[in-house]
Predict the 3D structure of the following.
Amino acid sequence: MLSVAVALLGCASAAMIGHTAFMAACAMLALGVLYNWKLKKFGFFGNLAVGFSVGMCFVFGGIAVDNSFEPVVLFLAVMTMFVDLGEEIAADALDVEGDRETGSRSFAVIFGPEQAMRISATVFALVIAGSAVPFATGWFGWIYLLPIIAFDAVVIWSVLRLLDPSAPRKLRYIRSIYLAGTAMVLALIVIRLVTE
């Protein structure tokens, strides 16, 4: 009952922003319901749904200020989606027994946790490669380079630890990526506020 009430309140709040925001909120609510009902058992498609939902936070912010198609907004949305996708696949690799018990067809169940972790590492490699895009296109000035390099460094270090079979308590490395990503976004916001 609380879930339904909060979902309806969220859609009503989005409607106060505008028609596009309302449609986006309803679409994401539908995706969330579909994920809990079916998609979480479909492995990669469930991971992708979660990543897409997280990335949509930036798009919704753009919609709220009538600037949803600004390249930087779309870049951050796509990058966030891939970061979360990599983390979801890595988390599945760390909880393969749980996935088996729930009937999930995750990469960890299908290919084994080691191969799933390598797939996760490939996704993170795409994230690191993609971090050069806003500089190559001129969307970001060079002042933004430091927080992005710092984030990439944390990702590389964390992924290497996740790939190391002897590394203990691997969940903390996934958490490190989350925290580094949050810190990077906050740094980008502060730089934008100070310089523009």
Q: What stands out?
A: Residues 17 and 65 are 9 Å apart (CA to CA).
